[in-house]
TrEMBL record:
The keyword Membrane does not apply. The keyword GTP-binding does not apply. It comes from Halomonas mongoliensis. SUPFAM superfamilies: S-adenosyl-L-methionine-dependent methyltransferases. PANTHER family: BLR2883 PROTEIN (PTHR43317:SF3), THERMOSPERMINE SYNTHASE ACAULIS5 (PTHR43317). Signal peptide: none annotated. This is Spermidine synthase. Pfam families: Spermine_synth. The lineage of its organism: Bacteria, Pseudomonadati, Pseudomonadota, Gammaproteobacteria, Oceanospirillales. Keywords: Polyamine biosynthesis.
Length: 224
């Protein structure tokens, strides 16, 4: 089997480390330099698809639906949201690392079908937390996949998003009857309780990393 080859690097703001993009034939992998394992792989995106599908199906019939994807990654959540939503929708994707956007506009784009080229897509470079704070009542759905879940791995600053203050900001950024969807590599009962204390009605869904029904079990919280 061919080996992965390094084709790009991108520094993580505020972290002092970098992301690495590797390619093996038509397969891509994103990893943190010096860390074991990988963050993402183009062959394992079932749960990223489900994050968007579960959230956007709830609001897809709203005229002019506006949704936020927190974390571009490999573009699969963005692509899945666009597939569900109507032609008058707007999907804002917030990405902290400019290099990740460049990868998705370049060699990585074809894996998810070039969702950044869709006219309904808007890219916001920077911290998704800052965007939430300035977009009160701005979104029908918010999908967060910015780290490994409530236990952040890539940036300590990501912890704020999953804190009571961060969740309150997300709640304030939702329009009436909006939905917050949060991806995680695993279950976290304490986070479920944190969402409830903020005032959300919470549903927890277990999804597989790979479809159909294969791969690791990931968790998605749907909070409304």
């Amino acid at each position: 089997m061919a080996k992965f080859e390094l084709i790009g690097t991108a520094s993580i703001p505020g972290k002092g480390s970098e992301l690495r993009l590797l390619q093996r034939n038509d397969e891509f992998s994103i990893r943190i330099a010096g860390a074991p394992g990988e963050l993402m792989n183009t062959r394992l995106h079932g749960s990223e698809d489900a994050l968007a599908e579960l959230a956007c199906e709830r609001i897809a019939d709203r005229p002019g639906a506006r949704v936020l994807v927190g974390g571009l990654g490999m573009g699969f959540t963005l692509a899945a949201a666009l597939a569900v939503l109507g032609e008058d929708a707007e999907v804002v994707v917030a990405e902290l690392v400019p290099g990740v956007v460049e990868w998705n506009r370049g060699p990585l784009g074809a894996a998810a079908g070039h969702p950044l080229d869709d006219p309904r897509t808007r890219v916001s470079l920077g911290d998704v937390g800052e965007l939430l704070r300035r977009e009160s009542g701005g979104f029908d759905a918010i999908m967060l996949d910015v780290d490994n879940g409530p236990e952040g791995l890539t940036r300590r600053e990501n912890d704020w998003l999953y804190s009571p203050n961060g969740l309150a900001a997300a709640q304030a950024a939702l329009r009436p009857d909006g939905v917050l969807a949060v991806w995680s590599a695993g279950q976290d009962p304490a986070f479920t309780e944190r969402l409830r204390r903020i005032g959300f009605l919470v549903e927890t869904v277990t999804v597989r990393a790979h479809r159909p029904g294969k791969g690791a079990k990931h968790c998605i919280w749907l909070a409304s």
